[in-house]
Amino acid sequence: MVSLPALQARGRVLFPGLLLAVTIAAAAKFLSEHYVAPVMLFALLIGMAFNFMAEQDRTGAGVVFASKTLLRLGIVLLGARITLGDIAGIGTSGLLTVAGLMALTIGFGFICAKMFSRGWRFAVLTGGAVAICGASAALALAAVIPANDKTERNVLFTVVAVTTLSTIAMIIYPVLFALAGLSDAQSGFMIGATVHDVAQVVGAGYSISTEAGDMATIVKLLRVTLLPVVLIILALALARRESGFSQVRLPLFVIGFGVVTLANSIGLIPASLASLLVDASSWLLVIAIAALGVRTNMKAMLDLGWRHVAVIVLETVFLLALAWVAVATGVAGI
User: Fold this and answer.
1) What 3-state class would DSSP assign to 239?
2) How many whole angstroms separate alpha carbon 174 and alpha carbon 180?
3) Helix (H) or strand (E) holding 243
4) From 70's CA, which of 175, 221, 277, 330 has a CA 20 to 30 Å away?
5) Cα separation of 216 and 115, whole Å?
6) What are the two backbone dihedrals, phi and then psi, of residue 315, each rounded to the nearest 5 degrees?
7) CB-count burial class (<10 Å; 0-12, 13-18, 19+) for 238
8) Cβ burial 258-283 (10 Å sphere, 16+ → b, else e)
9) Residue 244 pLDDT
10) What are 73-111's pLDDT values in tens digits?
11) What would the mean pLDDT of 297-311 be, rounded to a whole number?
12) What number of other Cβ atoms are within 10 A of residue 204's Cβ?
């Protein structure tokens, strides 16, 4: 058992860096609420401006703690956003369609990465972020994938890219679907199945109608619900690749995510507490993103080049095209 003096000493070491990350996160929240822009993007950009503090003795340890431990805790609490009942209204065909879109998009990510000479880790990060739930998925996947010297900058690039593309989609997709003559339910399905981040899905869906917003939210939550499934499959695949299935050890945060989701689904978490947990998750993820921003060197990000951008843009267009075909042919059941 860890002694109280040891905890106090650890707290003193972590406090300056944590305070920096929390302050950046609070500033990002303020700017997001007042200028109607993605909070994750603000947190990243402000954090990057403080990169000079990443290696300082006083702040370094706390920044690392925020970017790793608080990140995992935030992902665990994401489970309070989801219940199995949320997806009942979409039906079996909708469920299978969404799962199929996700699987094909992740698979296409490997093809794109190969085309542009990117590694498999980048394929998993970008394909998963586009297919599942944007920045949150990228952070969760990064916690499972074995890290290398490019991991942090690839994660930051993915978060920036999917957040930016989600914002563009929130503006363009409702207009595009209206011009195509899609019904409100069809437009909602398309938005929920293709836009990366939850906030932009809600914004785009309800900008059309209540029916479209409800459908978009349910489909999006279905994608989020499948996140732990993807994480488990990835963990199994990596374990098999490295040392066989007998050595499989699921990360604790994946197990925690599943437990919280199940508890929320069967009513063990009161609605008021679930709301608090979702808010806490939002704050923890923003703090983690702020810390990741602090740890990111802008020059290293710029050195990534156009191939990174091409991969994630192609994945986004691919997902949109697949969803369009599914709706147009009636496969989605909408």
Assistant:
1) helix
2) 10
3) none
4) 221
5) 32
6) -60, -40
7) middle
8) bebbbebbeeebeeeebeebbeebbb
9) 45
10) 887 887 787 666 665 666 677 788 888 999 999 999 999
11) 73
12) 28
Q: Are 319 and 109 in contact (CB under 8 A)?
A: no
Within 13 Å of residue 247, how many CA atoms lie on the same side as its CB? 8
Token pair 């340890």: residue? 61
| Other CB atoms within 10 A of residue 154 CB | 23
H/E element holding 29? helix 4-35
The alpha carbon dihedral of 139, 255, 102, 225 has a sign of negative
Residue written as token pair 């938005």? 191
Any idea what DSSP says for residue 304? T
Please state, in angstroms and rounded to a whole number, the distance separating the CA atoms of residues 192 and 187.
Answer: 9
- Phi, psi (rounded to 5 degrees) for 12: -65, -35
**CATH number for the domain whose boundaries are 16-328:** 1.20.1530
**pLDDT tens column, 241-291:** 654 444 445 567 767 877 887 888 888 989 899 999 989 988 988 898 788
pLDDT for 245? 42
How many helices (H) and strands (E) would you count in the chain? 16, 0
Amino acid at 153: R
CB 311 within 8 A of CB 126: yes
Q: 205 is written with which tokens? A: 């869906």
Looking at the chain, how many residues does it have? 334
* pTM for the full predicted model: 0.69
pLDDT of the residue at 179: 92
169 contacts 175 by C-beta, under 8 angstroms:
no
What is the reported pLDDT for 35? 82
- Residue reference for tokens 């990174």: 308
Phi/psi zone of residue 330: left (φ > 0), alpha (ψ -120 to 50 degrees), beta? left
Q: Which residue has the higher pLDDT, 146 or 254?
A: 146
